[in-house]
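Before any further analysis, backbone shapes were mapped to integers, which produced the following:

***
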Amino acid sequence: MPKSLNDQQCEPSPKPFVYSEIVKEHFLNPRNFLMGDESKYQRDAEGTVGNPVCGDQMTMYLQIEDDKIRDVRWKTYGCASAIASTSALSELIKGKTLDEALKIGPKEITEFLGGLPEHKFHCSVLGHEALAEAINNYRSKLQK
């Protein structure tokens, strides 16, 4: 038994994972990330979701015109997979109608990114949930 943490042997992960080049690109150069004060970004819709298990949180801000997403910005507090997933989703939904955007789910986000490690798939789910929350909030405002 080791006497201290320094005496322990590090065991390699039984299933190492490698990010695709697309995931790395979206993590290192995220698209449509909202820099600065979000209160200064004019938006028609906003949705925030989080995962208490991993600590990731995502907020999606949408500008909507004629039922289409004219512009999108986002903020994500999370890992490389969370950032890359939200960045990819923001590119995939621009110019789409609200219903078309809602059809872009975790599977499509993951495929666009060239795959995610199995234990990181939930990151693409959070992005889709933030988008759905924003659209639901927008539609609720319209009905009032």
In short: The chain has one domain: 20-31+43-143. Confidence is low (pLDDT under 50) at residues 1-14. The chain has five helices and three strands.
